[in-house]
Amino acid sequence: MNLSYHISCDLFHFSNTLALVLISKAMDYHQKALNIQKSSSGVYKAMTAETCVLMGMVKSKMGEFKRALNLYEDSLLVLKNSLGEDHSSSWKTMAQIGSVHFELSNYDKAMAILLEAERWQLASAGEENRDTLETQALIGRVLSATGKYEEAMEKLRGVFDRQNVLFGSKHPTIADTLSYIGECFLVQGMATEARGQFVNCYNMRKHFFAVDQIQVAESMVDVIRARNDRPDRDLKIYGNAEEIYKENLPDDHVLIGRLCVYEGDSYAELHKWTEAIEKYEQAKTIFHKVFNGGELASDSALVAVNIGKVLSRKCDYDAAKTSIATALDIYQKILPEGQ
Fold it and tell me: What architecture (CATH level 2) is domain 127-227?
């Protein structure tokens, strides 16, 4: 049986995860505790800040990037004052801030703080360290997103090789790196190479994170979007992923928005223009909410490009030109000149 069949079946055998929702509800209490304890002793302030960092990680996973960023930045101030800038909790939080800036398409800010975190990590923990490697992998993502593909691949390959030496080839930490390498291939149009990385990532996550439906479904979606031969079959598997997302995530989560884009792409391949536009508009609405208007988000730019392509195919050239111009304006604001 082919991989697509196995993926489709696997999605229906994972149990529901409620931990994300429960932890998210508890987070507001920790934020209040952080505010209260800003005037207390350094140890307690640091403990509360570290808890808020964990809650920020949950908020980020739930797609609430602005809320996560506020938590991280407040916590970092406390951690630097309480423990010092060179403490592991401080530079771990810097890396989390960088990851959120990446999601928000703030690539310059993401790179700056990730490089700062890497500098502290290399000085304190060295290169053969899990946190250092994860930060370097995030740097690779930023390089890939800004079109520096050779540098990105060199960075990501180096991380992958060292992770293999440190943890072994089956360690779950490597799964994220594989997905980043796959994405770097995919944005360059190297679908076959990307698919190989995504398949390895999916198999690894399925084994280690069977309870986390969201992460496994996300990997499954990556595998499917790295091929273009069967859009009708792809839509069925995207539908399975959509069920998983909607059971476990808010309706306006960024992953649901991105899935709408992929579904729109499949409909466009089938020349079902109305359905494609409908999916793209759903994605556009989600991105507008997630990214506070979407004017400076790469996701919003991509959906504008895709809408423009479909409108052009429908011979609505004026509307297509307007949509493409919107995307170009976003890209010019968030990407390096000449990208």
Answer: Alpha Horseshoe (1.25)
